[in-house]
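Quick one, T. Sequence first:
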Amino acid sequence: MPHHCQRFIDIPGSRRELLAQSATGFGTLALAGLLQHELRADIHNSLLPRETHFAPQVRSVIFLYMDGGVSQVDTFDPKPALDRINGQPFPQKIEPTQFNDIGSSLASPWKFQKYGECGTPVSDLFPQVSKHVDDLAVIRSMVSDFSEHTNGNYFLHTGHGQQGRPCMGAWWGYGLGTECQDLPHYVILNGGLIPPGGLDNFGSGFLPASYQGSVFSSNAPAVANVRRQELNQTLQQNKLELIRQLDTAALPRFSHHQQVESAIANYELAARMQLAVPDLMDISDESKEIQSQYGLFADFNNTQIFGRQCLLARRLVERGVRFIQLTCPGGNGDRWDQHTNLRVGHSKNALSVDQPIAGLLQDLKDRGLFEQTLIVWTGEFGRTPFAQGNDGRDHNPFGFSCWLAGGGVRGGTVYGATDEFGYRAVENRVEIHDLHATMLHLCGIDHERLTFRFSGRDMRLTDVHGHVVRDILA
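Structure tokens:
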């Protein structure tokens, strides 16, 4: 029996039949090449809405990715003990760091105040977001398995520290489908900084290719070649109809009809996007008050960039897009990766995102979208409570902060704790797999039942780990 590696399509027929088919060109061969990745799956990849395991509490996820590693002791986890030992040798055992340039204990340059009815403390870096603490569930005990950006990003985005696994958004499309048939189910709004690890952070891995993320620029044009080249829509529709007829006629010659049908559906989605994307990106129908609320008229350019992303995220939620991720804006600074110039770098990054995020939270509330949306704010890890050199902090995966808000989330909550210096999680540790499991739960998905058969085992986003963090759920 001949051995098949499962990466190619068997096209039965003689050489005479091949020559007969090639009379109309070698389109069939091109189609087979396009389908090679999708043939690794043996199930359909329709993005029509699917039944959930139980009633979902939210329809969409907005993932506010804070690239580089935000310092927990400078944002949502105040540590007065650091004030007492500032400038002194750090009193605990120090794990190996990324650059091993270990300085003295470093107190936060920013003051903390308690806000809202819940009294959650937030640093002066977030004067606008702090007004919404009664809506936030702050987790102070996040941990990661990796202290390096690339592997940490893969772990955060895919649940695995090496490249090649499906990302969160791909699993959302696989498990839930989408309510929007004119836009991708998973959209990344690129503000200028693609995370270390590159586009593999947004890939479909062993899932069919249609589940991978679609990267939109936050400025027009959002997608390259989105506008048709034909003189009018009729000419374009005629071309698309011809392609559809040719592909449909080729279906009987392929043993994997579902993958061919999926490819046809992708081409049709691309055509629909030509109408939907320009409408999405045109924010002229948004009032000046709303644009100002998001920071689109701010003096700092990065605030405008991130504000536009947040506004587009709300517009995507309105259109039924399932998973939306925002990246940090480029220019005028760096990621939250302040190995030096902590005060300047964190101040600029906070100024970029504070007003836009607060505007997003308020706008979702005002439009009745807050309860059907899950908002997640996190980086790939945190930063050390001791200095790198004199004025920076190194990577710290042993304890950091994130927050969730929206439907099904118990606002005004603080969960977990780090030690007195903010170095290690010591109470209610929350792993990345736990975060993923909780996000899926709020969308009506049991993370242990969302599986995909690959390489002889049932794969899932949470691997063999993960527990829903129920104490932060309403």
